[in-house]
Amino acid sequence: MFSLKSRGVVQVTVNMASKGFIQNATLDFQRSFSKIGFIGLGNMGNPMVKNLMKKGHKVAVYDIKKDSVADLAKAGATGCGSVAEAVDGADAVVTMLPASKHVLDTYTRKGGILESVKKGAYLVDSSTVDPSVSQTLAPLAKEKGATYLDGPVSGGTIGAEAGTLTFMIGGEEDASKKVEPLLLCMGGRVVYCGSHGMGLVAKIANNMLLGISMLGVSEAMNLGIKLGMDPKTLMSILNTSTGRCWSSEMYNPVPGMLPNVPSSNGYKGGFGVALIAKDLGIAQSVATQSGIAIPMGAQAHQMYRMMEIKKLGDKDLAVAYKYLQGESV
Amino acid sequence: MFSLKSRGVVQVTVNMASKGFIQNATLDFQRSFSKIGFIGLGNMGNPMVKNLMKKGHKVAVYDIKKDSVADLAKAGATGCGSVAEAVDGADAVVTMLPASKHVLDTYTRKGGILESVKKGAYLVDSSTVDPSVSQTLAPLAKEKGATYLDGPVSGGTIGAEAGTLTFMIGGEEDASKKVEPLLLCMGGRVVYCGSHGMGLVAKIANNMLLGISMLGVSEAMNLGIKLGMDPKTLMSILNTSTGRCWSSEMYNPVPGMLPNVPSSNGYKGGFGVALIAKDLGIAQSVATQSGIAIPMGAQAHQMYRMMEIKKLGDKDLAVAYKYLQGESV
Amino acid sequence: MFSLKSRGVVQVTVNMASKGFIQNATLDFQRSFSKIGFIGLGNMGNPMVKNLMKKGHKVAVYDIKKDSVADLAKAGATGCGSVAEAVDGADAVVTMLPASKHVLDTYTRKGGILESVKKGAYLVDSSTVDPSVSQTLAPLAKEKGATYLDGPVSGGTIGAEAGTLTFMIGGEEDASKKVEPLLLCMGGRVVYCGSHGMGLVAKIANNMLLGISMLGVSEAMNLGIKLGMDPKTLMSILNTSTGRCWSSEMYNPVPGMLPNVPSSNGYKGGFGVALIAKDLGIAQSVATQSGIAIPMGAQAHQMYRMMEIKKLGDKDLAVAYKYLQGESV
Amino acid sequence: MFSLKSRGVVQVTVNMASKGFIQNATLDFQRSFSKIGFIGLGNMGNPMVKNLMKKGHKVAVYDIKKDSVADLAKAGATGCGSVAEAVDGADAVVTMLPASKHVLDTYTRKGGILESVKKGAYLVDSSTVDPSVSQTLAPLAKEKGATYLDGPVSGGTIGAEAGTLTFMIGGEEDASKKVEPLLLCMGGRVVYCGSHGMGLVAKIANNMLLGISMLGVSEAMNLGIKLGMDPKTLMSILNTSTGRCWSSEMYNPVPGMLPNVPSSNGYKGGFGVALIAKDLGIAQSVATQSGIAIPMGAQAHQMYRMMEIKKLGDKDLAVAYKYLQGESV
C-alpha cells in the first residue's frame, strides 16, 4: 500500500503550487497593504492576525469582546474600540465572524464597515456563511469604491495557527490575485472559485461531501468490524477500492487506525460536530432556496444534529463512528 | 494537481503487488488444478472461463441455460449437462450465481455440488451473496473433505473480460494461498479478508461506501453547478480537499469531466444501478440480522431503488447525478 | 366502519365550536372594522376579499399586479395604487403574501404598512412564513400603536373560496378575540395558538406531520398492493388500526379509494407538492436555527423536492403514491 | 373536541362487527376443535393459551423452554415433551414463534408439525414473519390434508391477556371463517385479508405506517414545544387538522398528554422499540425482494434501530420523542 507520508493534502498542495495555482508573494505587497483591519478575533481570527503580524503587517483589530482585542494588542496589534476605528484608512479588511447575520450587520449597520471603508480597499470575508451574503455586499462595496471578495477557509484552527489554511475566493479574478499575497501570510493555498459567492459555494459543497463521506466510512467500518473483519484489513481494502476517500485514508474514524488523527485521540480537536452541522445547515438552506434536492446531505445534516443534541457537538466529526454504536465518548 | 494517468487503482495494484499482497503464480499450479468446474456462465462467468482457458486450464462448464454452455463449449470448454458432470473429479469448482438461494441450492440439492465433489477439491464461490451462505456451506464442504472459500469479485464485466478482477477471499488463509494462482488467471489481485464470509463482508462494506460516496459526489457537484460554479473548478477543489473520493476523482458523475467513464458516455456500461441496489440490499439485510444501524446506507439503497423503478436499472450508478435533476438519460 | 359523511374535520369543527373554541360573531363588529386593507391578491387573497365583501365589509385592496387590483375593484373593492393607500385609515389590515421577505418588506419599507398604519388598527398576516417574522414585526407595530397577529390559514384555495379556512393565531389572546369576527367572514374556525409566532409554529408543525403521514400512507398502500392485497381491504385495515390517519381516512392517495379527493381526479387541485415542499422548507429552516432534529421531516422535504423537480409541483401532494411507482401522472 | 371515550378502536370494532366483519361464534365450535395444539409459549402464547382454556378448550402445549410448558400445565393445559406430541390428533394447531426460521423449522423438520399433523386439521401461524413463509408452508400443509393460514395479531401482550387481539388472516376465506370462533376465544376481531401471506402483508404495512406516524408526531410535537407552543394546544390542533393520526390522538408520545398510555408512564409496557424495529426489518426485507421503494419506512427502521442500540429496545416506541431530545429515559 502506498505510504502514509507521501500522499495526501500536503503533496497535493505542493503539486498545485508548482502548476501555478499559487502565485509567489511579491516582495512589495507590504507597501500595498500598509494597514490591515481585522474584525472577529475568535479561535480562527486570533491566530490569523498573529500570522499577518509575523509577516510584518500592521493590523488594527476589533471584536465585540474587549478581552480578545486586548489579547492581540499585547501581541503587537492596534486594538480598536469600534469597527470604524479598525477600518479607517485600512488598505484591506478581513472579517471572520460566526454567521450570515453578523457579517451583514457588521458591514451595513450605522458605524459598519461600508460607512468608513477607504476607496480602493479590499474587503475579504472569511466567514462561512450563505453565498447570498457575498452577492448582497459586493455591489454595496463597489458603490463605495471598494472591492469585496468572499474567501472562506478550510483547515480549521490547526491550519489557522500553522498558517496553512486554504482560501476559496469568489469575486473578480484580478482582485483575487491582488489579495493573494496577503492571504498567503495566513494560508498555504488560494483557490479562485469564480464570481461572488462561489468561494462559499465551493466550501459548502466540499464540506457537505465530507460530512456524507465520513458517515459512509463510519457505517462501512462499523458494519464490517461488527461482522467480524479485522479493522486494518478492512481499511486497507476500502483504501484501495472504489470506496476510497479522504475520510477513510487520511482521517479514519476508527480509533487506532491512523496516528495523529482525532479518532485516535478521543475525538478531541479536529473539525467539530457543531461546525459540520452548521455547514450542512447552510447547504440545506441554500439548496432549499434554489429548489435543489440533496437527500443524502439532508440526512447527514440530521445525523450530526442528533450527535450535537447528544452533547457531542465539540467532538471531531469522526465521532460518528461511536455514535453508530450508541456509545458515549 | 497530480496527473490523471499516474494515480489510482492501477498504480495502487502495482504497489500492493510489490509489497507482497499478490503471490506470484507458481509454475506448477496447473498440475494442481487439472480439471476445473465452473457453474454459472452469465456476463461474468463467461469471460472468466475464457480467461482460465487462455492460461491453459481445462474447464468443465454448466449453466441452466443450454445456450450458455454451448457457447463456451465452442470456445473449447467441456460442456456439461448437469452440475454433477461439471464437478465430478474437478480439483477446483468456481460458482458465479445471481443470489444466495441459487448458491445454497446449487451446493446442497440432490445432484448438487456437495454430493459429487472430490475429496481435497477447492470450492470458490464468487457470487455476491449474504456472508451467512459461506458460513453455512463451509462446514458442509469440510464434511466432504473439500475446502470452501467465499471469493466475491470487484471489477465488473470489464474486469472479468480484461482478467483484472479483484478477488476478496474469506476462509482459511492457506487455502486462499493455494487457489490464488488459479484466481490470478481471472484477476489481477487477490486479497485475503479473514474467516469464512469475510470476503463477502469486505465487498459489501466497500460497495455500500461506494454507493454512498457516489450519491454524495452527485449531490455536491449538482449543488455547486446549479449555484453557478464551473464544474471543472468544483471537481478540482473537491479532489484536493476533504471531499476527495474515488467517485469524484476516478469516476466523476458529471458528463465531460473525465474521459473514458460511463458519465461521459451516456451512463452506458460500468456498474449498473440494479447491481448497486442489489448489493445495498444485501448490506441492509445483513445489518438488520445483526442489529447494526446503517442510516446512510439505507437511504442510498432507497435512492438506487427509486432509480431502478424509474427504469435506470441498467445505467451506470453515476446516473444518480441526472436523477437528482429529474432528467431522463 | 364509521361512515364517510359523519366523521372528520366538519364534525370536529362543530364540536369545537360548541365547546367554545369559536366565539360567535358579534353583531356590531362591522362598526369596529369600517375599513379593511388587504394586501396580496393571489389565489388565496382574491376569494378572501370577496368573502369579506359578501359579509358587508368595505375592503381597500393592493397588489403589485395591477390586474389583480382591477379584478377586485370590478367586484366592488376599493382598488389602490399603493400599500399606503390601502392601509391609510384602515381599522384592520390583512396580508397574504408568498414568503418571509415579502412580508418583512411590505411592512418595513419606505411607504410600507408600518409607516401609514392607523393607531389602534389590527394587523393580521395570513402568509405562511418563518415564525420569526411575527416576532420581528409585532414590537414594531406596537411602537405605532397597532396590534400585530400572525394568522396563517389551512384549507387551501377551496377553503378560501368556500369561506371555511381555519385561522391559527399567534399574539395577544384578547387581540385574537377582537379580530375573530372579522376572520370568521373568511373562515370557519379560529384557533388561538399562543404568543407571537405560535400560529405559524402550529401550522408548520401540522403540515410537517401531514407531509410525513402522506408519504407513510403512500408507502404502506403501495407495499401492500404490490404484494397482492386488495386496496380497499388494506385501506379499511389501516383505518381501523394503529396506522389510522387523516391521509389514509380522508385523503387516501390511491386512485378510486375515496370520492371527491384529488387522487381520484388525476391529482388535480388540492394541496400542491410545491406548497408542502415550501412548508417543509420553513420547518427545516426553523428547526436548524434552533438546533432541533427532524430526521423524518427532512427526508419528507427532500422527497417532495424531488417530486417538484420531476415536474409534479402543481399536483396534489398525494401524488407521492404515483411517484413511488416511477410513474408520471 | 370529541371525547376520548367515544372514539377510536373500540368503537370501530363494534361498528365493524355490526357490519358483518366479525362472525358470531357458533355454539358448537368446541366440538370441531376438541384438541388444540399450541406451540410457542412466550409473552404472547402464554395468555393466549389461558384464554383458550377459559372458553373450555383442551390445549396441548409445547415450547423449547420446559418451564414455560410446566407453567401452563399447572394452569390446566396438557404439557408436551415434543412438537409431535402437541400436534398429534389436534384439530387445530396455533404457532406463536419469534421469527421466520423458527416457523419454517417447527413445521418442516424431522418431528415437526407437518410430519404428525392430522388430516383435516387447521394450522394457524400467528407469528409475525415474512409473508413468503405462509406461501411456502400452505401447499406443504395441503399435501398432508391440512389447511394452513397466516394469522398474525395486533394488540400486543395487553391484548393477548385481555383476549382483545385482532387476527389478520391470509389463506382461503372459508377456512378463515371456520377458525374464526376459535380465534375469537383469544381475540376481539378477525379480519380476512386475502390469499396466503396477506394477513402478514396487512400487519407489516400497518406497522410500517405506525412506525412512521409515531416518528412524525414525535418530531412535530418536539418542534412545536421547543419553539414555544403549549403541548396540549399543539396536540389539540394536530388532532383536529390534517396531521391527525392514531399516534397523536390515542397514543401521544409526550408525557402527560393522555392518561393510560406508556408515554405517561415512563414509556413502560406498550409496543417495544425492538418489536417495531423487527417489523420494519421485515417490511424492508419484503420490499427489497420485490423491488419496492419505501424511503420513509427505511429511515424509520434505522431510527428505531438506533434507539435499540441506545438501549431503548424494551421501551414503548413512543420513546422516540425522548430520543429526539437526546435524553435517556
TrEMBL record, chains A, B, C, D:
Protein name stated in the entry: 3-hydroxyisobutyrate dehydrogenase
Residue stretches making up the 3-hydroxyisobutyrate dehydrogenase-like NAD-binding domain: 197-323
Gene: LOC117646535
Catalytic reaction(s) noted: 3-hydroxy-2-methylpropanoate + NAD(+) = 2-methyl-3-oxopropanoate + NADH + H(+)
GO molecular function terms noted in the UniProt entry: 3-hydroxyisobutyrate dehydrogenase activity; NAD binding; NADP binding
Tagged with keyword Lipoprotein: no
Superkingdom of the organism of origin: Eukaryota
InterPro entries cross-referenced by the UniProt entry: 3-OH-isobutyrate_DH-rel_CS (IPR002204), 6-PGluconate_DH-like_C_sf (IPR008927), 6PGD_dom2 (IPR013328), 6PGDH_NADP-bd (IPR006115), HIBADH (IPR011548), HIBADH-like_NADP-bd (IPR029154), HIBADH-related (IPR015815), NAD(P)-bd_dom_sf (IPR036291)
Residues forming the catalytic site: 203
